[in-house]
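One chain is below:
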Amino acid sequence: MIEESPQSTAPDQNESRDDQPARVAGSKGLSRLIAVVALSVLAVYAVRLTGRGLELQRATLSEQRLGAEVGMLEAEVVALETAAAGAGNDAFTERWAREERGWIQEGDQPLLLVEATPTPPSLEPDGAADADEGFFGRLRRWLSAPDSAPDEGSQ
């Protein structure tokens, strides 16, 4: 039998030591690749989840807006049904013509209401206007009222 010398086993151990760093480096590369793929998948999932959340928010707002519009349309339908039911009645038609349309019957005397424009109040006290009136203002006032004597304070 051939016996191996201790020197011959040493190179085999050196070869196995050289293979270990290569295996460790390969496993690190593989774990990094798995981590990158996992992070990429998570990022894509997060983007899609955010997009779905935005779609849900838009749909909720649209639902609320349409619900309010449906409510207004239902109220309009009720008002139209009430008007249609009373349209055959002469009293209802006459009341509608007078109140809603502002129509009058033959023989009525229409009144046109005009809103009066208010006069702004004077900023000066009553006595201050007389003092600033001057000679011609007092003369005009005295001539326009011949029955009254001129004021004693104006002389």
Residues 12 and 18 are 10 Å apart (CA to CA). The chain has a mean pLDDT of 78.
